[in-house]
Structure formats: C-alpha cells, structure tokens
Amino acid sequence: MQRGFPGNGMSTAPPAEDSYSSCPKLLPLKMSEMSAMNRKLTQTLAESISKHVDHFNKTEVECLIREFNVLMGEPATPGRAVTGLDRGKFRSILHNIFGMTDDMIMDGVFRSFDKDNDSFVSMKEWIEGLSVFLRGTLDEKIKYCFHVYDLNGDNYISREEMFHMLKNSLIRQPTEEDPDEGIKDLVEITLKKMDHDHDGRLSFADFEMAVREENLLLEAFGTCLPDTMSIEMFEQHVFQEQLEP
Amino acid sequence: GGDQTATVLTLCAMMDFNLMQETCQLAIRDVGGLEVLINLLDTDEVKCKIGSLKILRKISHNVQIRRNIVDMGGLQSIVKILDSPVKDLKALAAETIANVARFRRARRTVRQYGGIKKLVKLLDCVPNLASLTANQEKDVEVARCGALALWSCSKSTKNKEAIRKAGGIPLLGRLLKSPHENMLIPVVGTLQECASEESYRIAIQTEGMINDLVKNLSSDNDELQMHCASAIFKCAEDKKTRDLVRKYKGLQPLVSLLAKANNKQLLAAATGAIWKCSISIENVAKFQEHKALETLVGLLTDQPEEVLVNVVGALGEFAQIPDSKATIRKCGGIKPLVNLLTGTNQALLVNVTKAVGACATDKENMAIIDQLDGVRLVWSLLKTPVQMFSPILRGPFVHALRMQRMQGKCICAAIAKIAKDKENLAVLTDHGVVPLLAKLTNTTDDRLRRHLAEAISHCCIWGSNRASFGEAGAVAPLVRYLKSKDSTVHQSTAMALYQLSKDPHNCITMHEKGVVKPLIHIMGSNDEMLQEAAAGCVRNIRLLALANRKARLFY
C-alpha cells in the first residue's frame, strides 16, 4: 500500500492528492491565498492549543493546524465551522500515512482521539491526540493504548475483547476441530501474564503494571502506535517541508 | 504461525519461564524454540526482534546454547542488528553478544562479520554530562552494553588488535570518566584485559587514563577496584606509569586494598600492582609511609599462590633498600620466606630466591637464613633452569662467601653438600667458587677448615678445578691443616689432598711443603676411607717423583 495523504474525493476543493509529491504544488497556492488575517487567526489558535499540549511548541502546532486543513480537504477560511475529521477520513490517514491495517484497532484509535465522542476528530482533538500518538511518554502511551483496547469503554479489557482483537493474529488451520483453540490459548496465556488481580479481566492497573514490567506489552493486542519510520516521515513532512517557502 | 502481535505475546509469556535454569534453557532448544528465536532476528519486526533478544540474552548464559546459537548462524544475525537505528535493539544485541562470545569460535565469528567495528561505534557517547535527556540516557545504556560485549570479545588477541584499529581506545578512555560503576566495570575490565598488549599500555598512559584508574581504586566496589588494580599491575612494567601512579596518589589506595584479604582475586591484583610499582624506589619510600612492608609480610602465610607470587615479588623489590631488609626481619618475615623455598611453583620460586637473596646481604638476616637451612635450600634450587638464578648467585651468595668466617663456614658446609651434584658444581665453578674457597684457606679455625677442605675436595671433581685450586694457592695451606689436632680436619683434608694430587703441579707443591710424612701418619688410622685417601695421595706423589727421576735420567 502506498502511503500518502488522502484524496478520497470527499473534499470540494482542489483536486485530490494521492501522494506527498503533489502536496508542494498545492501548498504555495494555499499559502498565497491565505490572507494576513487568516494567518493571524491560525497563530492565535495555535497559541491557545499549544498551552494544552505537552509535546509540540507553538510553531509545530501551527504546522499541524495547516496539515489538518489540508487533510480536511477544504480551504482554510475564517468563520467556517470546521467540525472535524470523520471516522472514514481518519481511518484513511491511519492506513495511508501510518500503515495500520487492523479495523478494530483503527476504530479504537479513532475512539481515543475523539474525546468528546461526537464522531468527529476536531482540530484540537487532532493535535492533542497526535501529541501522545507521536511523542507520548510511556505513561501517556499506556493510557492511550488501554483506551484503544477497551472496546466497550467499561474500563476493563475482557476476555471477549481480547479474543476479538487477536482473532486475526493467528493463522487458523482449516483442519482444526476448534479453529479458535489457538486464539483461546493465546488469550489465556496473556491473561495469566497480565491479570494481576486475578479477576479474569484487565483493569487499567493490571495493564499498567504489566507494561511497566515488560514494555513490549504496550501494544499487546495490536499495533496502535506508529513505528519510528512513520513518525519521522510524518514529522518531516509536516514540520519541515511546510516551513519551506 | 502468527503475526507480530501474537508472536510478541508468546515471547512475553516465554519470558516468564525461569530462563536462567538449565532444564528450561535446554527444553526451549529441544523443542525447536532456539531456531524460531533466531529466525525472528532476521525479520523486519522490531518488537519481535526485541522479544527474541530478551530471551536469547538470558538463555545464552548456558554454555551449550551459546554454541548452538553460533552453529545456527544466530551470532551473525545478532551482529547485523548492531546496525539498527533502534537503540533498544542495539543494546540488547550487544548484551547478548557479551554472553555468547565467551568461547573462542564465537569471538572469532564476531570479528569475521565486522562485529568489533560495530561494537566500538556503540561506545561513542559522553557519559558524564550533568543531566541527560532520555535520548542521551539511552545512548549511555547502548555504550554500556557495547563495553560488555567488547569485554567478552577482548579475550582473543586478534580482537584486542581489532578494537584498537577501530579506534576503541580513546572511546574507552572517554567512558572511563563515567560516574557509574556498571559502566566502569566493563570498560576497565576491557582495558585491563587488553593491557597485556604493549600498544594498549602505551595508549593507557598517553591518553591520561592512569588518573582515572587510580581514582577508581577508591571506589566502593570490589570488582571495580580489582580491575583497576589489575590494569595498573600490567601497565606498571613501564617506568612512566609507575611515576604517574605516584603522581596521582595511587600508592596509598593500593596499600588500603591489602586489607581486603578475604577477596583473593582483589588481593592478587592489589599485591601485583604494588609489586610492579615498587620497582621504582621512590614508590617504595611512599609505600613505606603507609606501612606496606609490614602488611605484606603478614600476607606471607595462608595465602593462595597467585597472591604469594606477587607479595614475594614486592618484598624482593622492597628489600633492595637496606632499611627494608631489617624491617622484614623485625616483622618475622625471614622464616616464612625461607619456608617458601620448598615449593614447586616456578614463578613463586623465582621471586622467593630473589627476595631471600636480597635479604641475605644483611648480616643478621643471613644468620637467620642459615639457621633455617636456607642457604642449602637456595643452592638446591640450582636444579632448576640456571639462568633464572644466576643473578642471585652472583650477588648475595658469592658475597656471603667473602664474609666472616662464621658465615663462611656455613657456606662451605652448604657447598660441600651441594657440590655433590655435577650440575651444581658447574654453576659454582662458573661463579668463581674456586678462587673464593682458595682465599678462605688461610685459616686456623678448625671448623672452617673441615668444611672448607670438604668443599674443595668435592669441587675438584669438576673440570680443571684441581689445577685452578693449585693456581689459586689453595694447596699449601691445606697441607698445614694436617698439623691440626682435630681428626675430622685430617679426614676432610686428606680427601681434598688426594683429589688435588691428581694434578701434577699440586703434587709438586705438596711435596715441597712436606706433606708425605703427615700423610703416612694418617695412613695408620682406623678409618678405611682415610687410609685410602692418604695412601692414594702419597702414591700420586710418588708416581710423579718416579716419573720425574726417569725424566732426569734421560737428560
């Protein structure tokens, strides 16, 4: 799958982009269209958002805002109600830019970003989410991952949820009597390792302790964080290329 | 089969096994687990590689598994991982190599796949910044693991060279400034391992590492102190280093280490360092400010040989100073030293003879040595390679021969005993025993005369000693001995004269001095051997006289 910024035709603006290489063509256009007032607005917005975000400075937030607008596929015009990235757009981003493939996980990530649960990832939620997604501390990542894996949001990762997530991880032998046996075993093994209070499910405390003991368990139920390469590429594109005139 | 997620979960579960237990380790191998772990190393999945290495790192403590890993090509894969941009992976790979490279073939494999260069690259970091970012801390951890791996690898000589060629020494020197013991131990461990090579000793000195080594002699950590002392031991062969150790105030901490007598490895390293440092006299003086000599003498008993070799070596150097010779005696050091002469450890014996030899130039020491039969013990060591002992012989013992009669008597008695062995005789002759014995002959001390004559008679058997004694003027005085009232003197003198009489010139001398009459008197003795000796001597003289007359008849 080629990675690139989404051009899924849902925008009403300029032609869909399907790779980074076509971005530079577009940007100068956008930049020249931005009026001074527009830029001022972005800066003010950036200022207020960057106060709530740990890992990006003001300039970086500005870049992220612009990137958000690009991804939204609409020109940045002041006063326009920008609701946010919907589930589809967001999942495309996860897939094309960060190489994620697992539907359940991607849903979980969307759920994590969409803090107010309005089925849209607003600009603020986008930036706050990326702060953890790209540069989070271990603590922040633990909370984030737990959230992703807690499919029904009841603050526990249950056996069923684990089964659900691991279902596609094992190659099922067609001749097996119980094709799910392997997965059930895997779930039991994992529970045994991580369920410290022995209540048959993983509370946040269970999860946190297990990850602190063994960092590899952070993404125990599926890759929900980007790998180093993707992070580098994304950051380079957003923070550096955009700053070039 | 499964994807990365399932694999990682499984690997994490495996980590719960008691991976340090042999049955478990071998079980993993026997079910084909080792192959799987090694195959994972070649994938692109970072988390799988991390998980696999975490397990390999543990089970490679097992001697068999190490070999299996190398046989299966696993070491090659691990070396490749050293190039990864992921710091955690680099560190884990290096740590695993540290465990696997504990046998020769593995160390060679690491080098053959360019592993030494890669490991040296890991050392590149600044370890002692005031505050480190998370990233910098990771770099330090990577460097520490690199040092661990190089420590294991450095046991091979070719690797020592490879490390140096790859620019490892200045990097190690930089890491030596770290405040952390867990960094310092592998770094100093590597340096002291490599210090057997001259190139390293020079570099350690010129790159200013002696200062850091000395500093860490005072750390709280026994292992660290031991490695530092070991490094100094090896480097102090060179005078500049000895001066630097003194300059950086390293002598006193070395003496303090002698108190840790329970840790034999540490004690061996510390005594070794003291030994080599004491080759410089200025250091001996400094050592004495801290009563090193007294402490060392205390270590002459109940210590393993690896410690004794160094302790005695040190005493040998200390004893070059007159004051020390007395101190050793006053601390009761002479007896234990002489006792050590009966050992079989070559290295120890060399040092003991040196030390005893150095002590023996002090009169009072010599008395004790003699009392303890020390002289004979040293001479008996002539059975071992002579080269080792010749400096000693030339020194104190020939010197002892020149001393007062009391000692002279002892030496002669010893020579008499020792000269019964042909090889010893050769050595004694080489070292001028003949003229020296000859010089002693002008004595009226019966005890000395007895031993002297005995010694001379034994020495006559070798080479041209008979003639040499004659040339040295030993014969005439011997004749006078026959006037003594002591029959034991007669005995040994008759033997000596008999031996000497095998040389015609000696016969002439004896005849001139009127030896025949007293000899005939002695022939009447009850002692068969004495009769024979006396008779034999007279016979030789007569034969010569006959030959002489015959010769004259023809003229």
UniProtKB/TrEMBL annotation, chain A:
Transmembrane segments: none annotated. It holds the Pfam family EF-hand_7. One of its GO terms (molecular function) is calcium ion binding. Residues 101-136, 137-172, 182-217 form the EF-hand domain. It comes from the Eukaryota. PROSITE patterns: EF_HAND_1, EF_HAND_2. CDD domains: EFh (cd00051). Keywords: Calcium, Metal-binding, Repeat. SUPFAM superfamilies: EF-hand (SSF47473). This is EF-hand calcium-binding domain-containing protein 1. The lineage of its organism: Eukaryota, Metazoa, Chordata, Craniata, Vertebrata.
UniProtKB/TrEMBL annotation, chain B:
ARM repeats lie at residues 73-115, 473-506. SUPFAM superfamilies: ARM repeat. InterPro entries: ARM-like, ARM-type_fold, Armadillo. PROSITE patterns: ARM_REPEAT (PS50176). Signal peptide: none annotated. This is Armadillo repeat-containing protein 4.
